[in-house]
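Hey, sorry to bother you again with one of my protein questions. A protein chain has come my way and I'm curious about its shape. I'm sending you its amino acid sequence along with the C-alpha coordinates. I owe you a coffee for this, so here goes:
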Amino acid sequence: MTAPLPHDAPAIRWGILGAGGIAHKLAQAVNQHTASKVTAVASRTPGKAQAFADAEGVQHAFTSYEDLVNSQEVDAIYVATTHNDHHTPALLAINAGIPTLVEKAFTQNAAQARQVIDAAAANNTYVQEAMWTRWLPHIAAVREAIQRGDIGEIVTVQADHGQPIAHVDRMKRPDLAGGALLDLGIYPVSFAFDILGAPDKVTAVGQLTDAGVDGQVSMVFDYGHEGSKAQASLTTTMWARTPCQAVIAGTEGRIEIADTFYAPSTWRLIRKDGTSWEFDGRVDNGFQYEAAALARNVAQGLTEAPELPLHQTLTIMETLDEIRSQIGVVYPGE
Protein backbone atom coordinates (compact mmCIF):
# COMPACT_ATOMS: atom_id res chain seq x y z
CA MET A 1 0.00 0.00 0.00
CA THR A 2 2.48 2.58 -1.17
CA ALA A 3 1.41 6.14 -0.39
CA PRO A 4 0.59 8.04 -3.62
CA LEU A 5 3.11 10.71 -4.57
CA PRO A 6 1.78 14.18 -3.64
CA HIS A 7 3.07 15.78 -6.86
CA ASP A 8 0.83 13.44 -8.86
CA ALA A 9 -2.37 14.89 -7.37
CA PRO A 10 -4.36 17.49 -9.36
CA ALA A 11 -3.30 21.10 -8.97
CA ILE A 12 -5.74 23.23 -6.96
CA ARG A 13 -5.76 26.64 -5.26
CA TRP A 14 -5.75 26.57 -1.47
CA GLY A 15 -7.04 29.15 0.98
CA ILE A 16 -6.13 29.06 4.67
CA LEU A 17 -8.31 30.31 7.53
CA GLY A 18 -6.02 31.10 10.45
CA ALA A 19 -2.38 32.09 10.21
CA GLY A 20 -0.58 30.31 13.05
CA GLY A 21 2.38 27.96 13.00
CA ILE A 22 0.53 24.92 11.68
CA ALA A 23 -0.83 27.03 8.79
CA HIS A 24 2.74 27.89 7.79
CA LYS A 25 3.61 24.18 7.69
CA LEU A 26 0.65 23.39 5.44
CA ALA A 27 1.47 26.30 3.14
CA GLN A 28 5.08 25.18 2.81
CA ALA A 29 4.02 21.58 2.18
CA VAL A 30 1.56 22.58 -0.55
CA ASN A 31 3.81 25.12 -2.24
CA GLN A 32 7.01 23.06 -2.15
CA HIS A 33 5.82 19.46 -2.42
CA THR A 34 2.64 19.43 -4.54
CA ALA A 35 1.44 20.81 -7.87
CA SER A 36 -1.01 23.01 -5.95
CA LYS A 37 -0.51 26.50 -4.53
CA VAL A 38 -1.75 28.44 -1.52
CA THR A 39 -3.33 31.51 -3.10
CA ALA A 40 -5.12 33.13 -0.14
CA VAL A 41 -4.95 33.44 3.63
CA ALA A 42 -7.24 35.09 6.17
CA SER A 43 -6.71 36.11 9.78
CA ARG A 44 -8.83 38.19 12.13
CA THR A 45 -5.69 39.48 13.84
CA PRO A 46 -4.68 42.82 12.26
CA GLY A 47 -1.62 42.48 10.03
CA LYS A 48 -1.23 38.74 10.56
CA ALA A 49 -2.65 37.61 7.21
CA GLN A 50 -0.43 40.00 5.27
CA ALA A 51 2.65 38.96 7.25
CA PHE A 52 1.79 35.32 6.49
CA ALA A 53 1.27 36.11 2.82
CA ASP A 54 4.62 37.90 2.63
CA ALA A 55 6.42 35.01 4.34
CA GLU A 56 4.87 32.23 2.23
CA GLY A 57 4.48 33.99 -1.13
CA VAL A 58 0.67 33.98 -0.97
CA GLN A 59 -1.06 36.35 -3.36
CA HIS A 60 -4.18 37.35 -1.42
CA ALA A 61 -4.45 38.32 2.25
CA PHE A 62 -7.85 38.89 3.87
CA THR A 63 -8.85 40.30 7.24
CA SER A 64 -12.05 38.23 7.45
CA TYR A 65 -12.81 34.59 6.77
CA GLU A 66 -15.97 35.59 4.90
CA ASP A 67 -14.00 37.67 2.41
CA LEU A 68 -11.69 34.77 1.60
CA VAL A 69 -14.54 32.29 1.24
CA ASN A 70 -16.41 34.64 -1.10
CA SER A 71 -13.31 35.67 -3.08
CA GLN A 72 -13.49 33.04 -5.86
CA GLU A 73 -9.70 32.72 -5.42
CA VAL A 74 -9.63 29.21 -3.92
CA ASP A 75 -10.68 25.64 -4.76
CA ALA A 76 -10.21 24.27 -1.23
CA ILE A 77 -9.91 25.63 2.29
CA TYR A 78 -7.76 24.57 5.23
CA VAL A 79 -9.12 25.47 8.68
CA ALA A 80 -6.16 26.15 10.99
CA THR A 81 -7.83 27.98 13.87
CA THR A 82 -7.80 26.96 17.55
CA HIS A 83 -9.78 23.86 18.62
CA ASN A 84 -12.69 25.84 20.03
CA ASP A 85 -13.18 27.58 16.68
CA HIS A 86 -12.87 24.88 14.02
CA HIS A 87 -16.56 24.36 13.38
CA THR A 88 -17.59 27.95 12.58
CA PRO A 89 -14.97 28.52 9.84
CA ALA A 90 -15.55 24.99 8.57
CA LEU A 91 -19.29 25.63 8.28
CA LEU A 92 -18.59 28.88 6.46
CA ALA A 93 -16.52 27.08 3.84
CA ILE A 94 -18.81 24.06 3.57
CA ASN A 95 -21.95 26.17 3.16
CA ALA A 96 -20.18 27.90 0.28
CA GLY A 97 -19.63 24.48 -1.31
CA ILE A 98 -15.83 24.59 -0.94
CA PRO A 99 -13.94 21.35 -0.15
CA THR A 100 -12.55 21.71 3.36
CA LEU A 101 -9.65 20.28 5.35
CA VAL A 102 -10.24 20.77 9.08
CA GLU A 103 -7.30 20.63 11.45
CA LYS A 104 -7.36 18.02 14.20
CA ALA A 105 -8.95 17.65 16.64
CA PHE A 106 -11.81 18.02 14.15
CA THR A 107 -13.90 20.13 16.54
CA GLN A 108 -14.15 20.88 20.24
CA ASN A 109 -16.72 18.14 20.81
CA ALA A 110 -18.92 15.62 19.02
CA ALA A 111 -21.91 17.96 18.84
CA GLN A 112 -19.90 20.42 16.76
CA ALA A 113 -18.56 17.56 14.64
CA ARG A 114 -22.12 16.48 13.83
CA GLN A 115 -22.96 20.01 12.72
CA VAL A 116 -20.00 20.07 10.33
CA ILE A 117 -20.65 16.58 8.97
CA ASP A 118 -24.37 17.26 8.51
CA ALA A 119 -23.60 20.49 6.67
CA ALA A 120 -21.20 18.64 4.39
CA ALA A 121 -23.90 16.10 3.57
CA ALA A 122 -26.51 18.82 2.97
CA ASN A 123 -24.18 20.68 0.62
CA ASN A 124 -22.66 17.55 -0.97
CA THR A 125 -19.28 19.04 -0.10
CA TYR A 126 -16.02 17.23 0.61
CA VAL A 127 -14.70 17.42 4.18
CA GLN A 128 -11.59 15.78 5.63
CA GLU A 129 -10.04 15.81 9.09
CA ALA A 130 -6.42 16.94 8.88
CA MET A 131 -4.95 13.99 10.78
CA TRP A 132 -1.84 13.97 8.59
CA THR A 133 -0.56 10.68 10.00
CA ARG A 134 -3.22 8.71 8.10
CA TRP A 135 -1.64 9.54 4.74
CA LEU A 136 2.08 9.28 5.55
CA PRO A 137 4.22 6.65 3.76
CA HIS A 138 5.31 4.81 6.90
CA ILE A 139 1.73 4.39 8.12
CA ALA A 140 0.56 3.17 4.71
CA ALA A 141 3.34 0.57 4.91
CA VAL A 142 2.29 -0.41 8.47
CA ARG A 143 -1.26 -1.10 7.26
CA GLU A 144 0.10 -3.18 4.40
CA ALA A 145 2.23 -5.30 6.76
CA ILE A 146 -0.75 -5.89 9.06
CA GLN A 147 -3.02 -6.83 6.15
CA ARG A 148 -0.42 -9.32 4.91
CA GLY A 149 -0.55 -11.00 8.30
CA ASP A 150 3.10 -10.22 9.09
CA ILE A 151 2.43 -9.85 12.83
CA GLY A 152 -0.59 -12.15 13.11
CA GLU A 153 -3.59 -11.22 15.24
CA ILE A 154 -3.10 -7.88 16.97
CA VAL A 155 -3.08 -8.14 20.75
CA THR A 156 -1.95 -4.72 21.94
CA VAL A 157 -1.31 -1.21 20.65
CA GLN A 158 0.76 1.22 22.66
CA ALA A 159 1.32 4.89 21.79
CA ASP A 160 2.29 8.03 23.67
CA HIS A 161 2.55 11.72 22.90
CA GLY A 162 4.01 14.15 25.38
CA GLN A 163 5.43 17.62 24.78
CA PRO A 164 6.42 20.23 27.41
CA ILE A 165 4.05 22.91 26.12
CA ALA A 166 1.93 23.69 29.19
CA HIS A 167 3.31 27.24 29.11
CA VAL A 168 1.75 27.97 25.69
CA ASP A 169 -1.24 30.27 26.13
CA ARG A 170 -3.76 28.29 24.08
CA MET A 171 -2.87 25.10 25.98
CA LYS A 172 -3.75 26.69 29.32
CA ARG A 173 -7.14 28.10 28.44
CA PRO A 174 -10.48 26.28 28.71
CA ASP A 175 -12.08 28.89 26.43
CA LEU A 176 -9.70 27.79 23.65
CA ALA A 177 -10.34 24.10 24.36
CA GLY A 178 -6.85 23.77 25.80
CA GLY A 179 -5.23 20.79 27.45
CA ALA A 180 -3.18 17.83 26.31
CA LEU A 181 -5.96 15.62 24.95
CA LEU A 182 -7.24 17.59 21.96
CA ASP A 183 -3.82 18.89 20.96
CA LEU A 184 -1.51 15.93 21.65
CA GLY A 185 -3.63 12.98 22.77
CA ILE A 186 -5.61 13.02 19.54
CA TYR A 187 -2.59 11.42 17.84
CA PRO A 188 -2.43 8.18 19.87
CA VAL A 189 -6.24 8.04 19.97
CA SER A 190 -6.57 8.35 16.20
CA PHE A 191 -3.71 5.88 15.75
CA ALA A 192 -5.56 3.27 17.83
CA PHE A 193 -8.66 3.84 15.72
CA ASP A 194 -6.61 3.43 12.54
CA ILE A 195 -5.18 0.08 13.65
CA LEU A 196 -8.05 -1.40 15.68
CA GLY A 197 -11.17 0.65 14.92
CA ALA A 198 -13.57 1.97 17.54
CA PRO A 199 -13.17 0.47 21.03
CA ASP A 200 -15.96 -1.28 22.91
CA LYS A 201 -14.95 0.31 26.20
CA VAL A 202 -12.84 3.32 27.18
CA THR A 203 -11.25 3.85 30.59
CA ALA A 204 -9.36 7.07 31.35
CA VAL A 205 -7.66 8.81 34.26
CA GLY A 206 -6.23 12.29 34.15
CA GLN A 207 -4.64 15.11 36.09
CA LEU A 208 -5.98 18.62 35.60
CA THR A 209 -4.39 22.04 35.81
CA ASP A 210 -5.64 24.76 38.15
CA ALA A 211 -7.51 26.22 35.17
CA GLY A 212 -9.40 22.95 34.67
CA VAL A 213 -7.83 21.61 31.49
CA ASP A 214 -6.10 18.24 31.30
CA GLY A 215 -2.36 18.27 31.82
CA GLN A 216 -1.98 14.50 31.52
CA VAL A 217 -4.24 11.61 30.51
CA SER A 218 -3.83 7.82 30.42
CA MET A 219 -6.34 5.76 28.44
CA VAL A 220 -7.11 2.09 27.89
CA PHE A 221 -9.25 1.02 24.94
CA ASP A 222 -10.75 -2.46 25.11
CA TYR A 223 -11.83 -4.41 22.03
CA GLY A 224 -13.83 -7.42 23.17
CA HIS A 225 -16.08 -7.80 20.15
CA GLU A 226 -16.02 -10.93 18.02
CA GLY A 227 -13.55 -12.62 20.36
CA SER A 228 -10.83 -9.99 19.95
CA LYS A 229 -8.02 -10.00 22.50
CA ALA A 230 -6.92 -6.49 21.60
CA GLN A 231 -6.36 -3.55 23.90
CA ALA A 232 -4.76 -0.16 23.35
CA SER A 233 -2.75 1.63 26.02
CA LEU A 234 -2.39 5.35 25.26
CA THR A 235 -0.92 8.30 27.13
CA THR A 236 -0.55 12.03 26.62
CA THR A 237 0.93 14.89 28.64
CA MET A 238 1.78 18.53 28.11
CA TRP A 239 4.18 18.53 31.06
CA ALA A 240 7.08 16.48 29.65
CA ARG A 241 8.65 15.17 26.46
CA THR A 242 7.86 11.47 26.17
CA PRO A 243 9.32 8.96 23.67
CA CYS A 244 6.44 9.57 21.21
CA GLN A 245 6.72 6.01 19.95
CA ALA A 246 4.19 3.35 19.06
CA VAL A 247 4.15 -0.44 19.18
CA ILE A 248 1.70 -2.83 17.54
CA ALA A 249 2.17 -6.32 18.97
CA GLY A 250 0.58 -9.41 17.48
CA THR A 251 0.69 -13.17 17.85
CA GLU A 252 3.40 -13.50 15.17
CA GLY A 253 5.50 -10.40 15.81
CA ARG A 254 5.46 -6.69 16.47
CA ILE A 255 5.96 -3.35 14.72
CA GLU A 256 7.93 -0.68 16.57
CA ILE A 257 7.48 2.84 15.17
CA ALA A 258 10.29 5.18 16.10
CA ASP A 259 10.08 8.71 17.47
CA THR A 260 8.03 10.50 16.33
CA PHE A 261 5.43 7.85 15.42
CA TYR A 262 2.78 10.24 14.06
CA ALA A 263 5.26 12.16 11.87
CA PRO A 264 7.31 10.81 8.92
CA SER A 265 9.38 8.11 10.61
CA THR A 266 10.91 4.65 10.45
CA TRP A 267 9.68 1.39 11.87
CA ARG A 268 10.97 -2.10 12.52
CA LEU A 269 9.05 -5.35 12.22
CA ILE A 270 10.31 -8.09 14.53
CA ARG A 271 8.94 -11.61 13.99
CA LYS A 272 8.64 -14.03 16.89
CA ASP A 273 11.35 -16.20 15.28
CA GLY A 274 13.79 -13.28 15.74
CA THR A 275 13.95 -12.17 12.10
CA SER A 276 13.33 -8.48 11.43
CA TRP A 277 13.26 -5.81 8.77
CA GLU A 278 12.88 -2.04 8.66
CA PHE A 279 10.93 0.54 6.69
CA ASP A 280 12.14 4.12 6.23
CA GLY A 281 9.25 6.50 5.62
CA ARG A 282 11.02 9.77 6.35
CA VAL A 283 10.10 12.67 4.04
CA ASP A 284 10.35 16.45 4.27
CA ASN A 285 7.41 18.18 5.96
CA GLY A 286 4.67 15.53 5.46
CA PHE A 287 1.55 17.71 5.32
CA GLN A 288 1.64 17.41 1.52
CA TYR A 289 0.16 13.91 1.71
CA GLU A 290 -3.11 14.98 3.38
CA ALA A 291 -3.39 17.99 1.06
CA ALA A 292 -2.80 15.85 -2.02
CA ALA A 293 -5.37 13.34 -0.77
CA LEU A 294 -8.03 16.05 -0.70
CA ALA A 295 -7.18 17.21 -4.23
CA ARG A 296 -7.18 13.63 -5.52
CA ASN A 297 -10.42 12.64 -3.79
CA VAL A 298 -12.31 15.75 -4.89
CA ALA A 299 -11.23 15.14 -8.49
CA GLN A 300 -12.66 11.62 -8.18
CA GLY A 301 -16.00 12.96 -7.00
CA LEU A 302 -15.67 11.73 -3.40
CA THR A 303 -17.11 13.63 -0.44
CA GLU A 304 -14.87 12.10 2.24
CA ALA A 305 -11.50 10.39 2.60
CA PRO A 306 -11.41 6.57 2.50
CA GLU A 307 -8.44 6.55 4.91
CA LEU A 308 -10.40 8.58 7.50
CA PRO A 309 -14.14 8.51 6.77
CA LEU A 310 -16.34 11.04 8.50
CA HIS A 311 -18.15 8.43 10.59
CA GLN A 312 -14.81 7.56 12.19
CA THR A 313 -13.94 11.22 12.74
CA LEU A 314 -17.26 11.57 14.57
CA THR A 315 -16.67 8.44 16.64
CA ILE A 316 -13.23 9.73 17.59
CA MET A 317 -14.81 12.99 18.78
CA GLU A 318 -17.38 11.00 20.78
CA THR A 319 -14.53 9.04 22.36
CA LEU A 320 -12.68 12.25 23.26
CA ASP A 321 -15.90 13.54 24.84
CA GLU A 322 -16.14 10.34 26.89
CA ILE A 323 -12.52 10.66 28.02
CA ARG A 324 -13.08 14.28 29.06
CA SER A 325 -16.22 13.23 30.93
CA GLN A 326 -14.30 10.58 32.86
CA ILE A 327 -11.50 12.94 33.86
CA GLY A 328 -13.71 15.97 34.51
CA VAL A 329 -12.80 18.44 31.75
CA VAL A 330 -15.66 20.70 30.65
CA TYR A 331 -15.18 23.63 28.30
CA PRO A 332 -17.19 26.87 28.50
CA GLY A 333 -20.57 26.59 26.84
CA GLU A 334 -20.79 22.83 27.32
In short: The chain has two domains: 6-132+287-303, 137-282+317-327. The mean pLDDT is 97. Residues 39 and 58 are 5 Å apart (CA to CA). The radius of gyration is 19 Å.
